[in-house]
Design goal:
Elements lengths: L4 E6 L9 E11 L7 E9 L6 E3 L2 E14 L2 E14 L9 E9 L3 E11 L2 E14 L8 E2 L3 E8 L12 E2 L2 E5 L4 E3 L4 E9 L1 H4 L4 E9 L4 E9 L6 E8 L6 E10 L4 E11 L14 H6 L8 H11 L5 H9 L3 H13 L11 H16 L12 H9 L4 E5 L8 E6 L6 E7 L6 E6 L10 H5 L8
Parallel strand pairs: 14-20
Antiparallel strand pairs: 1-2, 2-3, 3-7, 4-5, 5-6, 5-8, 8-9, 10-15, 11-13, 11-15, 12-13, 15-18, 16-17, 16-19, 19-20, 21-22, 22-23, 23-24
Helix pairs in contact: 3-5, 6-7
Length: 461
């Protein structure tokens, strides 16, 4: 898994939307033994993202992590742990980033991974995600490279046996991961760790490691080639490259192991947020084909494309919908998604598409909190649809049920048509809220909704 993950949770509130829970995740695969590779999961979060309580020793909190890994519908691994948080800095000071990692030994194959993250002090603040994981086999008959692990800090220990114990130790190195895969500040340094396997068995004469830095379009910006000596079958290599001259944007680092008879390669995407050089929008100088090929949309499967297009029906104009429905080839449908979100990027100079990030955060919230017996997928519910289409309401009020009246919610949007209301009523009593009235044209309209839908009969129906 070489993807970048960020999960934001917006905690439930009766009358407003609270601040999100922010956690960064990344992962890499390494050889462990001939049968079972090692999948490493890295995580980080600011110590201010959890709800803290004051004690004599400082402000304390806890963040829960649970990971379940399934294969063919059957669980093969489950692990849970709690990360304690102690914040002694005065409130208002810069947040401290907490970093950790876990590893799982998994036979090669395809897996479904589910991760749950929850604030221990407030169980309503949680984030969860599911994704597919493909664990690759490491072939003992040819050169192989591990995934590239991006690092925030690398320490070398000349005498490894004297080095302190650490979950981040890899041989003679301590590798502190960088789960955000971002390098920021006025003096950023790209740091990475990679392993080469079967070096002595396949290349007793030695070979070379070639590093290349690429921009989002695939243009090579920098390269370095250095020899390696096969003193063992498994070799480790690190790279520390100053990148202060790079403008903010998306980049790739590629490493190739080469000999006269064999080769292996690995590549990793990362992000630079550099306040010194002015950001340079890729669209100003990069052909659209190159930007598209470097985007996530170019990797979408047919089923993923179909899901994304279904979601976009909530946002797209009639002309865009007509065009999308006329497309039949996978590449054309992928490119439509790329252009759709590129046109809505509020700041192309940044490496992220903030509009897409916000949409996905709302989607995650809807699926977490608006699912019901009727709507297994929360975004398909009335509240989920309104949240995705119009964004977070300015105010959200929940009125609980009484013996004579059903529970209902009122959402108010201050910036929509000079002030717009949506009224949702729990018609079944099972938290399945139906939109019964709105002041927005095109939405359900029932000015008498209070007398028509709220009263309960003698039987409670």
């Amino acid at each position: 898994m070489n993807a970048r993950f960020a999960w934001f949770l917006i905690s439930a509130a009766a009358s407003a939307w609270a601040q999100p829970l922010q956690v960064w995740l990344d992962a890499a695969q390494f050889w462990h033994n001939r049968q079972v590779p090692r999948w490493e999961l890295y995580y980080s979060f600011p110590d201010t993202t959890v709800r803290l309580r004051h004690t004599d020793s400082g402000d304390v909190g806890e963040l829960y992590f649970g990971v379940q890994i399934d294969s063919a519908g059957r669980p093969v691994a489950f692990r849970e742990w709690i990360v304690p948080v102690l914040r002694t800095a005065p409130r208002g000071d810069t947040a401290r980033e907490l970093i950790g990692q876990q590893h799982f030994l998994l036979p090669p194959g395809n897996y479904a991974v589910r991760i749950l993250i929850q604030d221990v002090a407030d169980s309503s603040r949680r984030a969860q995600a599911r994704f597919a994981l493909s664990v690759r086999p490491f072939d003992s008959t040819r050169l192989e490279l591990s995934d590239i692990q991006l690092a925030s800090l690398i320490r070398y220990h000349p005498t490894p046996e004297a080095a302190p114990e650490s979950p981040f130790r890899k041989g003679a190195y301590t590798i502190i991961p960088n789960p955000s895969v971002e390098y920021r500040g006025s003096d950023p340094v790209l740091r990475l760790y990679v392993e080469l396997y079967n070096a002595r068995r396949r290349t007793p004469e030695g070979g070379t490691l070639r590093y290349e830095l690429l921009d989002a379009s695939g243009t090579r910006l920098w390269e370095l080639e250095r020899p390696y000596r096969p003193v063992a079958d498994a070799l480790a290599d690190v790279l520390e490259l100053p990148i202060n001259v790079l403008p903010s944007g998306v980049y790739f680092i590629r490493v190739q192991a080469r000999t006269s008879a064999d080769s292996a390669s690995a590549q990793k995407r990362f992000y630079v947020l550099n306040p010194e050089p002015p950001p340079q929008p890729p669209a100003a100088h990069t052909p659209e084909d190159s930007l598209f090929e470097a985007s996530e949309f170019a990797t979408y499967s047919p089923s993923r494309v179909a899901q994304e297009l279904e979601l976009l029906e909530l946002l797209a104009s009639p002309q865009e919908l007509e065009l999308a429905r006329s497309l039949t080839e996978l590449r054309a449908r992928q490119r439509f998604l790329f252009r759709f979100w590129s046109a809505r990027d509020p700041n192309p100079a940044t490496p992220e598409n903030e509009a897409l990030q916000d949409f996905r955060a709302r989607l995650e919230y809807a699926n977490t909190y608006f699912a019901s017996a009727r709507w297994r997928t929360g975004w398909r519910s009335d509240r989920g649809r309104v949240l995705l289409k119009y964004g977070y309401p300015t105010q959200r009020e929940t009125i609980t049920a009484t013996p004579d009246q059903r529970s209902y919610e009122v959402w108010f949007y201050a910036g929509l048509r000079g002030g717009a209301y949506f009224y949702f009523v729990d018609l079944t009593g099972f938290q399945d809220y139906t939109l019964v009235h709105s002041t927005v044209p095109g939405e359900p309209y029932a000015p008498d909704w209070q007398t028509r839908y709220l009263p309960l009969g003698p039987s409670g129906r």
